[in-house]
Amino acid sequence: MISQTDTLRPMVYTSLFVALITVGAFITIPIGPVPIVLQNMFVLLAGLILGPARGTACVAVYLLVGLAGLPVFAGGTSGIGKLLGPTGGYLLGYLPAVLVTGVLSKTLGKKPAGDILAMAAGSVVVYAAGVPWLKIAFSMSWGKAVSAGMLPFLLGDAVKIAAAAVIAKKIRPLVKL
Asked: How many helices and strands, by DSSP H and E, does the chain display?
């Protein structure tokens, strides 16, 4: 028999990650059309901790909350305009990225090296969605879109991935899903 705790715990963890992604969006360094944020670290961490299904559900809830008008996107913004603007591709890329990260982490045994690989793959998915979207939204050349929407973020993403791998190693034993 499934207890209330068994059904409530995953919902609480999922809600916590929606909140963490939101907080990560508020930690912003504006450097151009795409700001530096911590939300991508929490998206990838959701894939590691919650797994592919719950992680994807978490990111879907986050995006729906933002679309509904709550100020959860970078800089405290919200609405369909954010998805149609320069960061829309990155935001939509979070859905397949969390899924890829969760699946790869699970497949690779939830070990630090596998987690790093899974998050790197998830980041590639975010860039694969975000850079073309940025190119279209601003009518940029490919070179300019890559220069504005990917290159400035690679070092920071490497640091975030390393931090998330350490956090996942510490948190996993405490999370019972």
From this structure: 7, 2
Which whole-number Å values give the CA distances from 110 to 39, 85, 102, 147, 149, in the listed order? Answer: 21, 35, 9, 33, 30
Q: Kindly state the percentage of the chain with pLDDT values over 90.
A: 81
How far apart are alpha carbons 49 and 9 in whole angstroms?
A: 13
**Element (H or E) spanning 87, and its range?**
none
Bridge partners, 73 (sequence order): 77
Tens digits of per-residue pLDDT, 67-123? 999 999 998 999 999 988 989 999 999 999 999 999 999 999 999 999 999 999 999
Q: Provide the residue range defining the domain that includes 19.
A: 4-174
1 vs 45: which has the higher pLDDT:
45
Neighbours of 7 (CB within 10 A): 9
Count of structural domains within the chain: 1
pTM: 0.93
CATH number at residue 10: 1.10.1760.20
